[in-house]
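Comment thread on ticket #2218

A.B. wrote:
> Attaching the input chain for the structure job we discussed in standup.
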Amino acid sequence: MFPKAGNIRRKPPDRFAREIGEALRGELGSSHNAIKTVMGWTGASERSAKNWLSGTHGPGGWHLILLARHSEAVIATILRLAERDQLIPGVRLRALQVLLVQTATEIGDAFVMDQRRGPRS
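C.D. wrote:
> Ran it. Output below, let me know if you need it in another format.
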C-alpha cells in the first residue's frame, strides 16, 4: 500500500531563521546580487543563500560565523537573540572604527597622488 501523496506539511520557519533573513535583507536587499554576496561570504550554494535571505531556513555553524564576520546586522541579531544587547554598541563602534580607518587611508592615498601630479596652473 502506498501513502497518500500531496499532504506534505512544511514546518514554519523558526524565529532564528526569520530574524537572520530580515537582517540579511535589511543590509543587502533581496536582489540576485544579495544572493551572490552571501554565497561569496560563505561559500554556500545558491539554494542555501536564497533560503537564508528568505528566512525559511537559518544558517548553521560555520556559515553563521562567516555571515557574522561580514555582516554587522547578522552579528547584532545573534547578540539580540542571545539577550546580549549590551554588546551591540561595541560592534557598531568597531564597524565605525574600521570605516574611519579605510576612509582616512583613501584620503591619504588621494593626497599622495595629488602631490605626485605637481602644482596646478
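A.B. wrote:
> Thanks. Noting for the ticket: The radius of gyration is 21 Å.
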